[in-house]
Amino acid sequence: MAKLYNQLKHFVIKVLEYLIIICVGTAIASAFLQVIFRYVLNNSLTWSEELTRYLFIWVVFMAAPVALVRKMHMGVDIIFNRLPGKIKIFTEAIIELCVAIFAITLVNYGFKLTSIAMNQPSPAMRIPMGYVYLAIPLGSLFLTWFALDGCLQGLRNLLAPVTREEVYKS
Fold it and tell me: In Gene Ontology terms, what is a biological process of this protein (predicted)?
């Protein structure tokens, strides 16, 4: 069962990575087209800046869970890195729990915002703004999943035996 769970988690991370790549590539192409149309053809595209901005929103909310899993978020770790084994593991679990609580809040209010914004068209592309805001609850759902997973992993590590080197490691 654990193997299936890890395969599912790995698959979701890969899907998120490909979605990020597609969004970034499309945003770059859109911005490039805007430059070509504006400065070469003297005819601006009305939708390209808006599309680039909305894709950037999707990139941010899809990349946050991937960065959490890979421990790539910025942080001040001067004191944290000096903590001994079990205290460091416990602190990591608490941090992951705080991230999960924040992400659950984002899921809740993100779905409310998305449902309200479904009736509001975007200015240039005329797509429902709910599709843009859907990135918030969707990315936050994955963030919640991965944060709770990290918290539970930390708790499992707390219950595991610790070596003498880990206790005095600084």
Answer: C4-dicarboxylate transport
Q: What is the pTM of this model?
A: 0.86
Q: Which of 115, 117, 125 is nearest to 54 (CA)?
A: 125
- The answer for residues whose C-beta is within 8 angstroms of residue 7's C-beta and 6 or more apart is none
Record the tokens describing residue 75, joined without a space.
Answer: 């942080």
3-state secondary structure of 159: helix
| pLDDT tens string 91-102 | 999 999 999 999
Task: Report the SS3 class of residue 68.
Answer: helix
> How many C-beta atoms lie closer than 10 Å to residue 93's C-beta?
19
Do 170 and 106 touch, CB atoms closer than 8 A? Answer: no
